[in-house]
Amino acid sequence: MTPMASFRNEVSGVEFPSFQAVSPDLERTTVDRARTGDQQALADIYDWYMPRVYRYVVARLGNAAEAEDLTEEVFLKMLGAIGGFRWREVPFSSWLFRIAHNCIATHYRRSAQRGGATSELSEDMVDHAPDVATAVEERITMDEVRRASQMLPDAQREVIALRFAVGLSIADTAKALGKREGNIKALQHKAVAKLQKMLIPNTDGTGTIRET
Amino acid sequence: MTEFEARLNECLEALSGGRWDLAECLRRNPEHAAELRPLLLAATVTARAYDVEPRPEFASAARERFLVATGQRLQEAMDVEPSPTFFAAARLRFLMAAQRMTRGERAATAQPRRVPVFGSPFRALASGTAALVMCLGLSTYTVASASAALPGDWQYPIKLQTERMRVALAFSDDAKRSVKLDIAEERVSEIEQLTHRGKIIGPGVLDRLVEQTQPLVDDAKDGGWDPGDATRLEQVSEKQQQALAEAAPRLAPAAQDRLSVAVDVSKSAQEVSKRILFFEDPQRPPAVLTPSVALTATPAPTQTPEPPPSVAPPSEAPSTPGSDATEPAAPETPVVAPTAEGIVISQAAAETRNNVKLYAVSVGNVQFLAPGSGDGWKLDGAPEKGVPALIKFSNKDDSSLIVINTLNGDMYWYISVNGRFDEVQMRIKKGDTVFVADRGVLRTAYGDASDTPWYVLESIGLIPPAPAPVSTATASP
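^ Those are the sequences you sent over. The predicted structure of the assembly is below.
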């Protein structure tokens, strides 16, 4: 059985997760208030972004315990830096995920220095399975997906994390990573193609998944 | 960018924006449908794999910590007409926190320091606290109480942030180093407290220890450290290893593989600090003069050494090949002439220290106490006649060699370290001043192995020109 054989092969049965975005105007006014130290605004930003930062960190690390620590670190860094945020440079989300990106980079650097690796997946994460009946079956599938994405080159994994775990647009992803949009699209294409080969190897020419 | 990439991206943007579903993507791109379908499916399941929520407990606790960090919590408390009981409780907590800080200050100032060059940890904490209060809007109470927080406490991230601020605010490399050493000491203290309280120690605790010790090791390797900082690092690393050993049974499963990394980093810290202390401080009398000098490179005796003395092994130490200072000398020992100019050794132990029997030795201008064969020591290369310029004792496995200048009492100790020998200057006369090794430094560097050489060192004395031998019996020690 292929890794994804248990997953539904009916196209209509698979839904892309939706990302609840805050309206740009509300985000702008909130961030402006937060820059002046308005604590309610900071709390709002935390509530909006914490789940997405967490997903991003999980996507990059695949380790829930470390993801929790790093998620907190990202927001403490944000707290110290938000006074210097300027709209003319990047959107707030790109700026925030650049902080997250730097935290991850630092984390990897430290791990490399001590010869450690962080690829352990955890049972602590709460998956959004469509219903209880398929939860266990899908649980295995989701771990396979996470493992597969951990095998992508770092640049591709970064794009996948920001695009699919966080839901950033191509433009915002490009700004967060300091790359061009065309570059991001190419990385995205390569990453998705690799994931498809790893996850759905038995795909015929029509895109139909064959059971093995 | 290819046409296909553009279509793929258009579909992915529409999917993540919730505007299209997969079927709609394929319907709109019939010419690419076959190729798009598996890619979109893979992208979708990948996105779903990461559609995870943090654990509710973590989410709730982390939010609480963040709100505390923004100062909102206390702000809210102040804004909503707090009840008198809230004020009373808050005031009590504040006073207790202040008291803890005062105790911390007392403890910090009472702690003996070898070199008085360190900044006051409390002063540094106070400045860091002030900065944190200003920058982050934290209450003084929050920061003060966080200083006593342990991993797992809700204030702990505040404590870590305070520490980062302290490092950032330190105005010079020396000051930053001092703060980093404070922080490393704090990590050890936390592990000790967690162990003492029977808490399970998670991987983050060990990771932080590693992350905050390794930069100190790297910095120390780069040079420029003064002996005071090196001493602190050495003390921290020693405490770390002790704390880690005690914490080992209480490690969470996920922390098990971090333990060896933490121990390794700690040992690196100990090694580099010792190197600074013993090899790079020419002003320090108890210096290892030539580290890793092979034993053959020891100063050659001025008189031709004879073959090792033939031995009449004492009955209680028959395995010792050398001659014996522990027991009365065997009369047939041919090595040492029984003259006042030769090597005169007491028949009975003159003193016992830490179960080591020490025999009075008189040779040339010096007299001292030396260990005997009962404790595994032997006299090396003593001449048959006359007074040797240097007298040498080695232990049974030749890992330790004591050399004494019989003219002026200078003493060197050669100790095997990883197959090579460190040459340690134990006692040396420069002009009218006699320098001797520091007991604590010797213990730190070489542990118990330095005990016997130390006993010898302490006993060295010059004897008058017409010395009276301790005993007329002679022996090879």
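The two ends of chain A are 5 Å apart (CA to CA). The first strand of chain A starts at residue 126 and ends at 127.

Shout if you want it in another format.
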